[in-house]
Amino acid sequence: MGDAAKKLLEDGLNLPEDERLDLASALWASVTREPDAAWEGAWKAELERRVADPRPSIPWDEARDRLRATLTKR
Structural domain boundaries of the chain? Predict the structure, then answer.
């Protein structure tokens, strides 16, 4: 990532969440090249693995809090 993109990212991260989502959506929609087949295959395999996993998922907030608690114990 070049300096201009790094600066744009830094500025973008300071936007309110709804504006960050709008910006991300607009950037994603602007990408016109064909997706990488290896990348798409890896994502498909990962999604299939997650769907097949019998363990229940937990909300991100809870997972983040668990990770933070683990890291602060170190």
Answer: 3-73
